[in-house]
């Protein structure tokens, strides 16, 4: 590539990098950078029970399925 084309590529890459960094900023304060809301404690409780409960129950469901299978 010729030097002008490579310098234009560098400029475009730099502009993209700075604009993507600006868009990736989270709000300030605790709980703002999480993919779920921690404001409603009952909704958070239901989400956590569902998430951890499914992981805890899965081995028991698999064992029951294997025991009932003929």
Automatic annotation (TrEMBL):
It holds the Pfam family COX7C. Pathway: Energy metabolism; oxidative phosphorylation. The chain crosses the membrane at residues 41-63. The keyword Cell membrane does not apply. One of its GO terms (cellular component) is mitochondrial inner membrane. It is found in: Mitochondrion inner membrane. It is a single-pass membrane protein. The keyword Cell cycle does not apply. Component of the cytochrome c oxidase, the last enzyme in the mitochondrial electron transport chain which drives oxidative phosphorylation. The respiratory chain contains 3 multisubunit complexes succinate dehydrogenase (complex II, CII), ubiquinol-cytochrome c oxidoreductase (cytochrome b-c1 complex, complex III, CIII) and cytochrome c oxidase (complex IV, CIV), that cooperate to transfer electrons derived from NADH and succinate to molecular oxygen, creating an electrochemical gradient over the inner membrane that drives transmembrane transport and the ATP synthase. Component of the cytochrome c oxidase (complex IV, CIV), a multisubunit enzyme composed of 14 subunits. The complex is composed of a catalytic core of 3 subunits, encoded in the mitochondrial DNA, and 11 supernumerary subunits, which are encoded in the nuclear genome. Belongs to the cytochrome c oxidase VIIc family. This is Cytochrome c oxidase subunit 7C, mitochondrial. It comes from Petromyzon marinus (Sea lamprey). The gene is LOC116958542.
